[in-house]
From TrEMBL:
<protein>
    <recommendedName>
        <fullName>Penicillin-binding protein activator LpoB</fullName>
    </recommendedName>
</protein>
<dbReference type="InterPro" id="IPR014094">
    <property type="entry name" value="LpoB"/>
</dbReference>
<dbReference type="Pfam" id="PF13036">
    <property type="entry name" value="LpoB"/>
</dbReference>
Length: 199
């Protein structure tokens, strides 16, 4: 009798643990899933693609190329998150960098953090690399334009329902004379019903 009771308890415990177990479903990375209504990977990718498509279609590229006889070099500066929620701006910056580089219409300059690491490597090469494989300092391509921007939100909430409005503003600035050569803006609006997301 005691053994039967122990077996029943063991089976019941296993059943409860199995019911509470984690379930994982693999998905395509481009598949859109919006669980909370917050800014997500799909928003980042779509906004980057649309805004970079717009900046690359404007006359500043052909004007620069005609005046200077070379492809413009671009660097992404700071993208400030001024929204109500945590947004990983690094993924957004990476999405924009990918679109710019893969367009073939601009040269792309490494960020300040990346340049620091590369410069350290050049110093090491000066000391340790052979003459024919050494990369000399002072040969870097300077950026001609910097892309800067910010992400803002407006939240309109009533009880458990929300309208979440996102506005992304980007500006492309000439490094030579601080002229703004392009201003882009993208707006997103989401209606979130029975929201558990708070601001």
């Amino acid at each position: 009798m005691n053994t039967l009771f122990k077996s029943i308890v063991t089976i019941a415990t296993v059943a409860v643990l199995a019911a509470c177990g984690t379930s994982v479903k693999r998905m395509d990375a481009d598949e859109t899933v919006d669980l909370s209504g917050a800014w997500n990977d799909t928003d980042s990718r779509l906004v980057a693609e649309e805004m970079i498509s717009d900046v690359l279609s404007r006359p500043w590229i052909s004007t620069y190329t005609q005046q200077n006889g070379k492809t413009p070099a671009v660097i992404v500066g700071s993208i400030k998150n001024l929204s109500h929620e945590h947004i990983n701006t690094n993924t957004f910056i990476n999405d924009m960098e990918r679109e710019l580089i893969n367009s073939g219409q601009v040269d792309f300059v490494a960020s300040s953090n990346q340049r620091g690491e590369i410069r350290d490597e050049r110093v090491d090469q000066d000391l340790n690399a052979t003459d024919d494989s050494r990369n000399a300092a002072g040969q870097e391509r300077g950026a001609d334009f910097m892309l800067q921007g910010q992400i803002n939100t407006i939240i309109d909430a009533n009880s458990s329902d929300q309208v979440r409005f996102y506005q992304v503003d980007l500006t492309l600035i000439s490094m030579a004379d601080n002229r703004k050569v392009w201003i882009g803006q993208k707006k997103l609006k989401k209606y979130v019903s029975n929201s558990k997301l708070r601001y």
